[in-house]
Design goal:
heterodimer, A: mainly beta, 0% helix, rod-shaped, B: alpha/beta, three-stranded parallel sheet, three-stranded antiparallel sheet, 11 strands, 35% helix, 15% strand, globular
Chain lengths: 11, 332
């Protein structure tokens, strides 16, 4: 099972 | 501009990858308790896709903000991202092979109610499972679902710890599922060797879960029956003991009062101080914006019980931070 993580990073 | 939480995702990623120096909760007492755990065979972190923060509150063309580098994957874990971009990605889900989505809400405002409704519709049309656990450690989907398989294989969601007990002493505490931030490993480590006869709810579970620390929101939420996500996370960890101490998890919010009516279950004493401090902050914040306020208006504008609010007001007055004139509260 493949997991992708979507997140926010401070730009 | 909206800013988005970036820390929780870092904790979840650190926990999933089980980096050696990831957890520092026990300081010099670290026994590298996490080294016996690892990723299951057949599981893979296909990619970490980042959106910038802050971003404009309203995007005119959200599709233009979908990152080009999204890899093929079965499950998407979307942590505190812009909801319009998330919806666009969900619409494109078939091109990634997506089968299930988890959108954890450590704070109620990580996604709006309307976006949640839209996400449900998109996913239903595409045959994709979606969950919005609030907080993440309340995530316990049916075992035979894709989401259930995800919780089991990646070991994150509502905590599940197998305890071995001999003569009422916990001889082993093995984590099957941890809170996504990793707190459950720390709690389990300190449960080993302790007796079920001790107050391990407070001395071990609450203590280590709190000091890890849990970062779930302290905002009361009607969807949680007026509880805070933080409280729900704490209950999820106390549930580790439920096979052994069946009274620990009591989810019925109403109890029979001595007068024969059903009333809200009283708040456990150890939470009172925290709630009073929260109410004090809320009162000061209110006075910041409006100078003075009547007790009646204050009761309507902050979500604390009258008893907690009264204690907060007395404490504030005692500390000289507020002044009361009849029923009107103001700054000194």
């Amino acid at each position: 099972m493949k997991l992708a993580i979507l997140r926010s990073v401070r730009s | 501009l909206d800013t988005f939480d970036t820390l929780f995702a870092d904790r979840v990623i650190g926990n999933l990858l089980n980096r050696v120096d990831f957890c520092t909760a026990c300081g010099s007492e670290c026994i590298r308790c996490r080294k016996v755990y690892g990723m299951e065979p057949g599981t893979e972190l296909a990619g970490i896709v980042s959106l910038p923060s802050p971003m404009p509150h309203l995007l005119e063309r959200p599709v233009e903000h979908v990152p080009p580098d999204i890899p093929e994957h079965d499950v998407l874990l979307a942590i505190a991202v812009h909801e319009q971009v998330l919806l666009e990605i969900l619409k494109q889900a078939p091109s990634f092979g997506l089968r299930a989505v988890v959108v954890p809400l450590e704070t109620p405002d990580w996604i709006s109610e309307s976006a949640r409704a839209q996400a449900h519709i998109i996913c239903e049309d595409l045959g994709i499972e979606i969950a919005f656990p609030k907080p993440f450690c309340s995530f316990r989907p049916p075992a035979n679902s894709v989401l259930g398989e995800f919780r089991r294989l990646f070991h994150i969601g509502m905590p599940d710890v197998s305890l071995e007990v001999r003569d009422r002493t916990i001889t082993s505490a093995k984590v099957s599922v941890s809170a996504a931030c990793g707190a459950t490993y720390c709690v389990a480590r300190w449960l080993e060797g302790r007796s079920l006869s001790e107050n391990i709810e407070l001395e071990v579970i609450s203590r280590w879960w709190h000091s890890y620390p849990c970062t779930a929101s302290m905002e009361r939420d009607p969807e949680l029956g007026g509880e805070t996500p933080l409280h729900v996370a704490g209950q999820a960890h106390l549930g580790i003991l439920s096979p052994w101490k069946s009274h620990v998890v009591d989810e019925d919010p109403l109890v029979l009062s001595p007068l024969g009516t059903m009333v809200q279950r009283p708040i456990p004493p150890e939470e009172n101080r925290r709630n009073i401090e929260g109410a004090m902050r809320a009162v000061l914040a209110t006075l910041e914006t409006r100078g003075s306020i009547s007790l009646e208006d204050l009761r309507g504008s902050v979500a604390f019980s009258p008893a907690i609010l009264n204690m907060a007001l007395l404490t504030l007055k005692h500390q000289g931070l507020t002044r009361t004139d009849g029923m009107v509260i103001s700054r000194p």
